[in-house]
Design a protein that fits this description.
It is an enzyme of class 2 (transferase). The protein is an alpha+beta fold. Helices cover 30% and strands 23% of the residues. The strands form eight sheets. A nine-stranded antiparallel sheet has the order 1-8-9-10-11-17-15-14-13. It has a five-stranded antiparallel sheet with strand order 18-25-26-27-30. It is globular and about 90 Å long. The structure holds 5-hydroxymethyl-3,4-dihydroxypiperidine. 5-hydroxymethyl-3,4-dihydroxypiperidine (IFM) binds next to loops.
Length: 730
């Protein structure tokens, strides 16, 4: 971050809705998340979220059928660590508050808020709140309140005790917007102990049988204190949130607000050092990009047992579930900047293999595994199979990410312990799930009744994206398997595979059918896509978007209309499978029928447009992408940030504007496309144990090898040996 302080504050966001502010300025550390909710009113507060801490509730089907998932999983809203009660000397509450400013320092993770708080009589005090989350001892959070008189000078009562009460919204509830969360009832909260300086509460879930202990500690004053305001005073609280037996180690007295801030600062220094992405010439974009990367890091489970929820830990939308978003949109950032985080995210999938094997069997596939479309613990939890279980591509997405991780790290240990088993089990799934058919006298392999990424088209035959992902998955299992059979026979044998099984995978991959549209000479999204009429866009008012909230799914399914990038995403992931001219035709066709109702769409159109050299076009998609939550473009930032889109903005800069790809020979390629609006931009990339610093400006591309051995690199089609520094004219 070049010693420049980057601070996000109120003026940088377009909507002052409390829920948006709470989500945007939330602090988290992959383990727990704390929204920047108003500490006085608690308005819109989802409380504390702990990654992986969820409750089951039964899914009620009007018309059940065999092997539908039985339970919802919902991330639990734990009590807020920020809520505070202020009273004047007559015991009247200060319960009105106005946020005057809020600022999040992206260089050290410190959040500062300034509120004007008033009582019923209109007397005012100023409350400044400084907070930070520990990025090393993940159970800890520190918050300091500073009070100053404005028009009230008397004594101030500060109460930080919990009020264990049932909220009005406790109870099972149904919601009409599928992107929101569900309300859960079977949670119990007890006060375990409470004294002058400390309070301990325990929260237990009845069905999932999880528990969390929250310990609050006031470092100087009592938890309930009364002091004269005079020139003002501060009170600091430390919180420790321990799940089950996790985080028992460090006692609350061993930590302090200063140490929490120090740990946070160190963590962010390392992050920026590894993953610098600086845009010169546009401060607004530069800030947004840093914010996105900041939140991406905050959201990520780091223990191999937890993952990234679609909303991270910034809100309870989508119930805290993990989707394919992780592998396709967020993992690339970690693979190329912090491979250790990437490894842990993939290990999470490994830990869910038991559920995935069971799910495959439930779908009638005896050998192999089918990963959950949406879940917290790995068990499928979606009640709407046409846009979940049928999205079998999740298997190929995970396999793709494993392939990319391995390509960038050569991490054999990962492959032997976890990766290959996933590749093998997913390849086995495709083998049994697909079918051999004959078309025009040629035998080919097809995948029937599937849903691709585009959720406005469901249950179709031969979705192009799915078929590509399956092909890649089968080929990866083949190549990695063969290598393993030679290098580590023991691991290979443990998984009961054989060279003939691997050859079968390869044979299938070679014969997968890919639908083409002859009229436009482009890849067809699926077999029946072009037999449908195009959605009547000119008769659809703006107020009817996103379509999913206004039209029955079957109404949407019978038209050509895309919610998000589908075939174009396949083109993005497999650049070597398509010629420039076909890509151009394909982009033009699918762009006109895409609504971008999904936040996962625009970033891909941007990256592909940049690759095509349509840099202005790419830039328009990019500006929407990079500030999507800061502008509340989707209208639901209050439910939590759109984590996949945050990752998508990094993809746009690195894989779009810097044109980064890895060739089929495993070489890093850079093909720069500097947007006209920028003077230059700089990125850092980790690749095969090297750290590279790349600066692209109007006249040249400069690549510096910051650490690691010399390597071969391709810049603008020309292969070079990078020993220290390369400069090439653009
Ligand atoms: O995974 C996505 C899906 O592709 C579109 N709907 C939202 C999900 C969670 O982000």
């Amino acid at each position: 971050m070049h010693n420049r302080k980057l601070i996000l504050s109120l003026k940088d966001i377009n909507s002052n809705k409390k829920g948006n502010i709470a989500a945007i300025f939330s602090l988290s550390n992959g383990y727990m998340g704390i929204q920047a909710s108003d500490p006085i009113t608690g308005a819109n507060d989802v409380g504390t979220l702990v990654n992986g801490f969820f409750e089951y509730s039964p899914i009620t089907y009007g018309e059940p059928a065999a092997f539908y998932p039985k339970n919802n999983q919902t991330i639990v809203s734990l009590p807020s660590l920020r809520k505070i009660r202020l009273l004047d000397e007559n015991n009247h509450s200060f319960n009105f508050s106005e946020l005057k400013n809020i600022s999040l320092d992206l260089s050290n993770g410190q959040l500062t808020e300034v509120y004007e708080v008033s009582n019923q009589g209109g007397e005012k005090i100023e409350m400044t709140v400084a907070s930070a989350i520990d990025q090393k001892k993940l159970a800890f959070y520190g918050i300091k309140f500073s009070f100053k008189p404005i028009s009230y000078q008397g004594k101030l009562v500060v109460d930080k005790h919990y009020k264990i009460e049932r909220k009005n919204n406790d109870g099972v509830g149904e919601v009409e917007d599928p992107r929101k969360t569900r309300l859960v009832k079977s949670i119990s909260k007890h006060i375990i102990s409470s004294d002058d300086f400390r309070e301990v509460i325990k929260i237990e879930t009845k069905e999932s049988q999880q528990s969390v202990t929250i310990e609050g500690y006031s470092t100087s004053e009592k938890m309930l204190t009364k002091r004269a305001l005079k020139t003002g005073f501060d009170i600091t609280y430390i919180y420790k949130v321990s799940e089950g037996v996790k985080n028992k180690g460090v006692s609350i007295e061993q930590n302090s607000f200063d140490k929490i801030k120090e740990h946070s600062h160190k963590f962010w220094e390392d992050v920026w050092n590894q993953s610098e992405v600086t845009v010169s010439g546009n401060d607004e974009i530069n800030l947004a990009l840093h914010f996105n990367i900041f939140q991406l890091n905050q959201a990520t489970g780091r223990d191999g047992k937890t993952n990234i929820a679609a909303k991270g830990l910034t809100g309870s939308g989508y119930e805290g579930h993990t989707f394919w978003d992780t592998e396709m949109y967020m993992l690339p950032y970690f693979i190329y900047t912090n491979p250790e985080f990437a490894r842990n995210l993939l290990i999470y999938r490994y830990h869910t293999l038991t559920f995935a094997r069971k799910r495959a069997k439930e779908l009638g596939i005896k050998h192999g595994a089918l990963f959950a479309w949406r879940s917290i613990n790995g068990e499928e939890t979606s009640a709407y199979y046409p846009a979940s279980t049928a999205a079998y591509h999740i298997n190929g997405d995970i396999a793709y990410a494993i392939g990319k991780y391995y390509e960038a790290t050569d991490d054999d240990d990962f492959m032997e312990k976890y990766g290959f088993e996933i590749l093998l089990e997913t390849a086995r799934f495709w083998r049994e799930f697909g079918s051999w058919t004959e078309k025009g006298g040629k035998k080919q392999f097809e995948f029937l009744t599937v849903t691709g990424p585009d959720e406005y088209t469901a249950m179709v035959d031969n979705n192009y994206f799915t078929n590509r992902m399956a092909e890649n998955n089968l080929k990866l299992a083949y190549t990695v398997g063969l290598r393993l059979a030679k290098s580590n026979q023991k691991v290979f044998d443990r998984l009961n595979s054989s060279e003939s099984e691997l050859r079968e995978f390869h044979h299938i991959a070679d014969n997968i059918y890919f639908p083409m549209n002859a009229q436009y000479q482009i890849n067809a999204q699926d077999d029946s896509f072009f037999s449908k009429p195009v959605w009547p866009f000119n008769k659809t008012p703006k107020t009817k978007y996103p379509l999913l909230l206004h039209y029955h799914p079957l109404n949407i399914y019978r038209y050509q209309v895309n919610k998000q990038a589908d075939t174009i995403l396949a083109d993005f992931l497999f650049p070597e499978t398509i010629t420039d001219s076909q890509l151009r035709r394909e982009f033009e066709y699918y762009e006109t029928i895409t609504t971008h109702d999904s936040s996962l769409s625009r970033s891909i159109f941007s990256a592909v447009a940049a690759r095509m050299g349509k840099v202005n076009h790419a830039y328009r998609y990019f500006t929407d992408t990079v500030r999507l939550d800061l502008t509340d473009l989707q209208g639901n930032t209050e439910d939590g940030l759109h984590l996949a889109n945050l990752g998508g903005s990094w993809l746009d800069v690195v894989q779009g504007f810097a044109g980064m790809q890895v060739s089929s020979q495993g070489l890093l390629k850079i093909i720069p496309h500097l947007p006209a609006e920028w003077d230059s931009f700089q990125i850092r990339l980790a690749f095969k144990k090297r750290l590279l610093d790349i600066v692209i400006d109007k006249s040249q591309t400069q690549i510096v090898l910051l650490s690691g051995d010399p390597m071969e690199i391709v810049i603008n089609q020309s292969q070079q040996t990078l020993t220290k520094i390369i400069k090439i004219n653009n």
